[in-house]
Design a protein that fits this description.
One of its GO terms (molecular function) is kinase activity. Its EC number is 2.7.13.3. This is histidine kinase. The protein folds into 4 domains: about 1-85, no CATH class; about 100-190, 2-Layer Sandwich (Beta-Lactamase); about 195-270, Orthogonal Bundle (Helix Hairpins); about 275-430, Histidine kinase-like ATPase, C-terminal domain (Heat Shock Protein 90, 2-Layer Sandwich). It has 13 helices and 13 strands. It has helices at about 1-20, 25-55, 70-100, 120-125, 130-135, 140, 145-150, 195-230, 235-270, 280-295, 315-330, 380-385, 390-400; strands spanning about 105-110, 115-120, 160-165, 170-180, 185-190, 275-280, 300-305, 310-315, 340-345, 350-355, 405-410, 415-420, 425-430. A 5-stranded antiparallel sheet has the order 2-1-5-4-3, with helices on both faces. A 5-stranded mixed sheet has the order 7-9-10-12-11. The chain has a 3-stranded antiparallel sheet with strand order 6-8-13.
């Protein structure tokens, strides 16, 4: 503004001098020319500024007269605002990426409980599709009365547990609603299917342990009460010895259950170690000697054992797994049945310990559950064989600790084939035993 007034004053002074020298008409002409020239230059500056306003990303035009002092601070502020916007966009993007990476689902709802945004985890938990479900009420999407009742509460101190069946799969999801901002809500989802399964397994385990111990305890209590209540002379020595023998059997059964439970607890709580090379053929021959004694000559045993094939592992654990499979085959194979034991390597370098029998076999629906603790496919027959119901659970844990796998093939009434597959990385060549 000051420069414009200075320019006008300079032209007026020039016009006054020329008017004094050449006359008033010449002075007025010079003044009019000067003012016209200033208007034309100002128009040129304004047109350049107008072009710049159309693209504020570019620096302002240079040399626009009095506008220079106005445009420069405006441009500097625009640059600062642009940098702040870029930084804000970067922070928002980082926040959105973090929200997408959350292991829990996150859903934002407006005051009408309409879905505004959700991350991928929430889509997986609840089957949402942000493209089609945005601005839809969450009640219309999920259609669960328990969710409606939960959302109508005045506060949400406890989460809601929902059981969702979708695409043939059952899932348990925990939902927690939290208000934030002004009339906004955050719905956090968490998949607790595995947690619920573990809790069910824990409850079943406690119930099964109680049930397994109750039977021998009931037998013991019955015999002890009988021996206490009847006169000594009313029972023969032969009956007393039979009662004592049966009590001893039940006590040994309880002792076996407790020992297997302690073994399982040890396997689950102790860290896995690499171990050292173990001569598996020696362990198999030892298990066969014990198995033949248990069989009492009622079964035929076929052996195919490579004496030079060893495994890096823990000898006591491997011996337990080997013995468990052989003992099961003997218990569940009728008299005159055949049990085939093999220990060989495959073409890809893996090693297989296999026990195949001609026993009673297992129904297809029972095979996936055989390694569960205390699970018995045939409860009546299983109890009569004297097993604890924990042998295969122990074997599975031992295999997991050795990066190995328990494989089960069976057909009801046609026998079973149990195999321990050890990866080639654990296989070692052993010197021939003399």
């Amino acid at each position: 503004m000051l420069s414009t007034l200075s320019s006008i004053g300079l032209w007026a002074l020039t016009a006054s001098l020329i008017g004094w020298w050449l006359g008033p008409a010449a002075g007025l002409g010079v003044l009019a020319f000067g003012l016209l020239l200033m208007v034309l230059v100002s128009g040129l500056h304004i047109s350049r500024i107008a072009r710049w306003v159309g693209n504020l990303e570019q620096p302002p035009p240079p040399s626009v007269g009095p506008w220079d002092n106005i445009l420069s601070p405006i441009y500097r502020q625009l640059r600062r605002d642009r940098q702040e916007l870029i930084e804000l966009d970067r922070q928002v993007s980082a926040i959105m990426m973090a929200a997408e990476a959350l292991p829990d689902g996150a859903i934002t709802l407006n005051a009408d409980m309409e879905l505004q945004w959700c991350n991928r985890t929430a889509c997986e938990h609840l089957g949402l599709n942000l493209a089609t479900d945005r601005h839809q009420r969450i009640f219309n999407i999920l259609r669960d009365p328990s969710l409606v009742a939960y959302a109508k509460q005045s506060s949400w101190d406890a989460p809601l547990i929902m059981h969702i069946n979708r695409d043939g799969l059952s899932k348990t999801v925990q939902l927690q609603l939290t208000p934030y901002g002004l009339g906004q809500y955050l719905l956090v989802t968490r998949d607790i299917t595995q947690v619920e399964k573990l809790e069910t397994t824990r409850k079943d385990f406690v119930a099964n342990v109680s049930h397994e111990l109750r039977t021998p305890l009931t037998v013991l209590l019955g015999f002890l009460e009988t021996l206490r209540d009847i006169p000594a002379e009313s029972i023969s020595l032969e009956q007393r010895l039979r009662y004592e023998e049966m009590m001893l059997e039940q006590t040994q059964h309880m002792q076996a259950i407790v020992a297997d439970l302690l073994t399982l607890s040890t396997l689950e709580s102790t860290p896995t170690i690499e171990g050292e090379p173990v001569n598996i053929s020696n362990l198999i021959h030892s298990a066969l000697n014990q198995g033949q004694a248990l069989s009492g000559g009622q079964h035929q045993f076929i052996q195919d054992i490579d004496p030079n094939l060893g495994i890096v592992g823990i000898e006591s654990e491997l011996g337990s797994a080997i013995s468990n499979l052989l003992t099961n085959a003997i218990r569940y194979t009728p008299k005159d049945g055949t049990i085939t034991v093999s220990w060989q390597s495959s073409a890809n370098g893996d090693a297989y310990y296999t026990v195949q029998d001609t026993g009673i076999g297992v129904a297809p629906q029972d095979i996936p559950r055989l390694t569960e603790r205390f699970y018995r496919a045939d409860k009546g027959r299983s109890r009569s064989t004297g097993g604890t119901g924990l042998g295969l659970a122990i074997t599975k844990h031992i295999m997991m600790r050795h990066n190995a796998e328990l494989q089960i093939q069976s057909r009801l009434g046609a026998g079973s084939r149990f195999s321990l597959r050890f990866p080639a990385s654990r296989v070692r060549a052993m010197p021939c035993s003399s």
